[in-house]
Request: fold
Amino acid sequence: MRVAEAGEQEENRNQLHPQAGNPNFIPSIMTKYYHPNGTYKAYTHDDKNLFNEAGEHIGYFQNGFLYDTKGIAIGHVKGKLILDKAGQTLYYTA
Reply:
């Protein structure tokens, strides 16, 4: 798996959603991700960056993989699922 280059890592690490902390903010186009137990965990508004409920940048999508903010691949996208290296569901989207 490709690990993001240093510049990409730094750029992604420093990102925070512009409306972080605003409980009334709902992006116009947003994909929500849920834990396998059904609890809401994260969202993306651009299909590139992943944010937690507080709006903190927790990862990014690139070439079909999900990377954490350090540039380490933690999962891959398969349809509406994000699977870990063992093939277990990390997140799903409705």
